Amino acid sequence: MSTDYQRAGRLRVNDNAPLGAYELTTPQKLMIFVLSMALFGLANIILEIIPDISIGPFDFSVSYLVFVPLTMAALFSPFWVALGAPLGEIIFTDLLMGDFSGLAEVEGYLQMFLAIYIAGSYIRNPKSRPQVAIGALLVVIIDKFLSAVVDLAKVWIGVEDAEFVDGLPESMLLLEGIGFGIDILMSGILFGVLPAIWLVPALHGKIEPLMGMRPRVPGEPIPGQAPLSGTFIIAVIVLSIASFFFAFLEAWDLNAGTFELEFLEQYGMSFLWVSVIALVVTLVIAIVLFRVAQKRDVRNTKESVQ
After folding, report:
1. Hey, what CATH class is 3-305 in?
2. What is the average per-residue pLDDT within 150-162?
3. Per its UniProt record, what InterPro entries does this chain match (predicted)?
4. 157: phi > 0 → left, psi -120 to 50 → alpha, else beta; which?
5. By the 8 A CB rule, do 293 and 9 touch?
6. Which pLDDT value is given to residue 5?
């Protein structure tokens, strides 16, 4: 590790960790968390003003801008990005817009958390476009697969009726398959792979120093990566089952904390500025606190050297 980073006091090395591994400081973790929350929240606000395209019985809509959380997960810490990004969607585009589904929101949160966490951990080399492309697809595949399983289970168990589309065969498997393919095309490729394979390599090594981080090195252990262990696989299964449980709460009318005032319908698209202002204020406060923590860390390091 270079002496420049050591003097800056911005990298914390664990002597017991494998060679090349480093740990993030608490201010860095919180800054990554807030940044991912704000940027993914902003991305979802932008999607609110983009109209859906319908061709015959097919609805070509964009579920989310995959390249936004994937870029941060590939360059920073997959774990902290995965924690923050789906929370940003819930706060800035659901809760503040008056369209909050209560405990049912946990379903989407857990599914997106797993998707970003696994996809970000897969990208070992941010300069590798094939890895970045696969990571972008993994986000959509994992999230939409879990969501499709939930939808199919609701119909098969009988807690919800099947919603068929005019002009298409009355087959839930077929409809879910078509929807899955459209999500892969729109969210996974057009707004995932294509921008990410350019953005991630271009930003690698340029924005990490702003966070006091060393750019990710191929083969080096990633801070906040998903461990390759049986315990992690069990945890993934448990979280997936938990997401199914929260989804069924809404189907059984047992959902709590629902908040549906529909501000966008009452006040129009201009109400989106409320979320934008809240997002900017949150981000500015986080940046100020992070800079204060950085300066204190540098000062403490200089004193220890002297």
Report:
1. mainly alpha
2. 72
3. DUF8171
4. alpha
5. no
6. 38
* Helices 105-122 & 129-157 angle (0-180, nearest 10): 150
φ, ψ of residue 55 to 5 degrees: the values are -125, 105
Buried b or exposed e, range 190-215, using 16+ CB within 10 angstroms: bbbbebbbebbbebbeeebeebbbbe
Q: How far apart are CA 165 and CA 186, in angstroms?
A: 20
Q: Residue 97 pLDDT more than 50?
A: yes
Tokens linked to 77: 């810490």
Cross-strand pairs, 260: 99
Coil/strand/helix, residue 91 = helix
Please tell me the number of Cα atoms within 13 Å of 116 on its side-chain side: 35
pTM score: 0.85
The C-alpha atoms of residue 226 and residue 138 are separated, in whole angstroms, by: 14
CA distance 76 to 213: 8
Phi first, then psi: what are they for 46, rounded to 5°?
-60, -40
Beta bridge partners of 59: 54
CA distance linking residue 230 with residue 93, whole number of Å: 36
Which residues lie closer than 8 Å to 126 by C-beta, 6 or more apart? Answer: 74, 75, 132, 200, 201, 204, 215, 216
Cα–Cα distance between 250 and 227 in angstroms, integer?
Answer: 32
